[in-house]
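ok so for the tutorial part 2 we go from a plain amino acid sequence to predicted structure tokens. step 1 is just haveing the sequence, like this:
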Amino acid sequence: MADEWKAPESDPEEREERKSWKLLEKTLLASVQEQRRARRWGIFFKLLTFFFLFGILALLLPLANMDKAASRSASHTALIEVRGVIADQEAASADNIIKSLREAFKDPKTKAVVLRINSPGGSPVQAGYVYDEIRRLRGEYPQIKLYAVITDLGASGAYYIASAADEIYADKASLVGSIGVTAAGYGFVGTMEKLGVERRAYTSGEHKAFLDPFSPQKPEETAFWQSVLDTTHQQFIAMVKQGRGERLKDKEHPELFSGLIWSGEQAKALGLVDGLGSASYVARDIVGEKELVDFTVQESPFDRFSKRLGASVAEHLAMWMGFQGPQLR
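step 2 — the prediction. this is what the tokens look like for a chain of 329 residues:
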């Protein structure tokens, strides 16, 4: 009977080499695991320190503001900035401006309020809210005057707001006015015909799609939309006349409410502004209290940082917990 076949024994050197490679592999794997653990704990402690420091900052900010308020003089001129487009969810929204106004008026150290304006206007609704609140606050605090100061631009809805003030000031080169209403769009009917595109719109209501830029205009709908703009324009004019009163030199001036914009010097001649000067000039020479204290609603550094922090924290927490998924870089 033939001898049973046996696999040849491996060379002792080969066995030793395999053992060395296995040992090296285990060592490398252990090193990688240790590095991962160290990285995760490092991220954890960094985040912990991060939250701790910003928690302290959040606690100290109110105290700093209290110290700042306590260090003010016996009186001051409150300053509120109206910058940019007047619209909901913008810095110059009615909510932000009204909150600032209420804080400024109720402060017992406020001698007067200066509304510093640099805006092209915006929503008539938002401007109307602010106008009404200014009139209300002036009635509630008759001893505190409100001055509007136009810097580069105080147009349309921005002038709407300014006209509620006790007095309006501007620089001689400021742009003031634009008392009018506009609504604009585009019509693509001709373009669609050239491209051979057919418009299909399904509505319930005869005029539901009357502002559709892809449909032909109808004379009766155009006339209706014009009536809406005219009505809003008349509301604007009425508020300006109410706010400015007899200071308007010529209420029947044919172009005063035409939407034209005037220089500060021209606006003064027309009675749209009361004088020429800056916010500092008004505080110092008109109010008699040169210290300006800013009451403009602003995001705190902590709030701004928190918004930026959100995505970063989520990513680092996922890494620390081992949930790092596919990413596109």
